[in-house]
Write a structure and sequence with these properties.
17% of the residues lie in helices and 33% in strands. The protein has 454 residues and is α/β, with parallel strands linked by helices. The protein folds into two domains: 218 residues, Spore Coat Polysaccharide Biosynthesis Protein SpsA, Chain A, CATH 3.90.550; 209 residues, UDP N-Acetylglucosamine Acyltransferase, domain 1. The protein is elongated and about 105 Å long. Bound molecules: uridine-diphosphate-N-acetylglucosamine (UD1) and calcium ion.
Length: 454
């Protein structure tokens, strides 16, 4: 039997108090809905339909090209009404699994269990026992069997005491679901078409209803406001860090790290507090990340150490490099092996070959640096003429004196030496010394100006 997945994502999420639709609020750097789509894909469903409404264009734009089916719910008249919008394109012969766009921590394994336990002609409802069930639909059982769901606002005092709640996830044969949805009414406290009313309809039709309990509350938590969003963020971060620790990655404090994307680590990686990883980041064996670092879409080779307070983006390092403290590697910075980049150094779109050092207060942009080069403090590649960018090439073994301006395009030969304070505009040959300075003037007995009136 085929599987269709319908994801409800039409609600505004008023309690977010945001102009961004709820399902686009970011969790671990990605929209809530993205996590739910991933979960749906992990189940191998060929047909995934997103019901969109509020901010629909923005939602569609965020997931264009993801091979999804879209159903518009122009007016949000309830969860049952939302599912109805998806049914015309759903094959009657399939089973339909309903997920919520604001329940991002759902695990595929939980849904696989629901799919397994629920017979092909039966109705499956994913439930969970909540410490505080306030606000959720309550699952009413008789002699252990699920007979119906009652929403908080429609529940009697006795029903409100029930701790088993409806997570919202439901599984049914699509043909049957269509029939039930056609018969839904909205005679309830909220005047909405409740999806949950199909439970009682199934019971009345003699269909078996399976109430399958999720393993914990956290995985099925619905996100309605910024507080719950922050709680889900911490829960997801903890899940990601736990996975990495199981693989042997060391963390100074599992609660003080943020992974917004995919972090892949080799053996004996150690990560100190307040490290933020965004996009695709790979850390080789023995990499050490000190405190307060942002690393985005980068690959650091084995044994590389990133000292505190660096900002690294779109960059690569070879093995045994040292970066920072207070360094900035911008997109296209490629450090080979044993390279040192020190404090207040910015490197952009430049290759730095083996063993070279750029240790202090320097800007290197659009530059090729050979092996064993020493770039002195305060060196600047003047790569921009106000209209175009130009390259600087520095040969192997060159020594660039402190405070040098390298006005690109310019070529600095192998083994050459640049005297401190020079502004280099012409090529320097191999093994040459280049100096560009006015003569020093020393005036004997010089009197400094004195402050007037003193
Ligand atoms: C719903 C369930 C409740 C369950 C809870 C779990 C119903 C009637 N109630 O309540 O039993 O305990 O979820 O979190 O189903 N949506 C639409 N279109 C609509 C209405 C909602 O797409 O017309 C979407 C929302 O964007 C959201 C989801 O459906 O992603 C749930 O809607 P919400 O209004 O939050 O339902 P709850 O009142 O929380
Ligand atoms: Ca909700």
């Amino acid at each position: 039997m085929g599987l269709s997945i319908v994801i409800l994502a039409a609600g505004q999420g008023t309690r977010m108090r945001s102009s961004l639709p709820k399902v686009l609020q970011p969790l671990a750097g990605r929209p809530l809905l993205g996590h739910v789509i991933d979960c749906a894909r992990a189940l191998g469903a060929g047909d995934v339909c997103v019901v969109h409404g509020f901010g629909g264009e923005a939602v569609r734009a965020a997931f264009g090209g993801a091979g999804l089916r879209w159903a518009l719910q122009a007016e949000q008249l309830g969860t049952g009404h939302a599912v109805m919008q998806a049914m015309p394109g759903t094959d009657d012969a399939n089973r339909v699994l309903i997920l919520f766009g604001d329940v991002p921590l759902m695990r595929p394994s939980t849904l696989e269990q629901l799919l397994q336990i629920t017979g092909e002609d039966d109705l499956g409802v994913l439930t969970v026992d909540m410490d505080d069930p306030t606000g959720y639909g309550r699952i009413v059982r008789e002699n252990g069997d699920v007979v119906r769901n009652v929403e908080q606002k429609d529940a009697s005092a006795a029903e409100q005491a029930i701790r088993e709640i409806n997570t919202g996830v439901m599984l049914a044969p699509a043909g049957r679901m269509k029939g039930w949805l056609d018969r839904l009414g909205n005679d309830n406290a909220q005047g909405e078409y409740y999806l949950t009313d199909v439970i009682a309809m199934a019971v009345a039709d003699g269909v078996r209803v399976h109430g399958v309990k999720a393993p914990n509350q956290e995985d099925v938590m619905g996100i309605n406001d910024k507080k719950q969003l922050a709680e889900a963020e911490r829960a997801l971060q903890r899940r990601l860090v736990d996975e990495l620790m199981a693989e042997g990655v060391g963390f100074a404090d599992p609660a003080r790290v943020d992974i917004r994307g995919r972090l892949t680590c080799g053996r004996d990686v150690y990560i100190d507090v307040n490290a933020v990883f965004e996009g695709d980041v790979t850390l080789g064996d023995g990499v050490r990340i000190e405190s307060n670092n942002l690393i985005r879409d980068s690959r650091l080779g084995s044994g590389t150490v990133v000292h505190s307070n660096c900002h690294i983006e779109g960059s690569t390092t070879g093995s045994e490099c040292e970066v920072g403290p207070f360094a900035r590697l911008r997109p296209g910075a490629e450090l080979a092996d044993n390279v040192k980049v020190g404090n207040f150094v910015e490197i952009k779109k430049s290759r730095v070959a083996d063993g070279s050092k750029v240790n202090h207060l320097t800007y290197i942009g659009d530059c090729d640096i050979g092996t064993g080069v020493n770039v002195g403090a305060g060196t600047i590649t003047c790569n921009y003429d106000g209209a175009n960018k130009h390259r600087t090439v520095i040969g192997d073994g060159a020594f660039i004196g402190s405070g040098t301006m390298l006005v690109a395009p310019v070529n600095i030969g192998k083994g050459s030496t640049i005297g401190a304070g020079s502004t280099i505009t012409k090529p320097v040959g191999d093994d040459e010394l280049a100096l560009e300075r006015s003569k020093q003037v020393s005036i004997k007995g010089w009197k400094r100006p004195v402050k007037k009136g003193s």
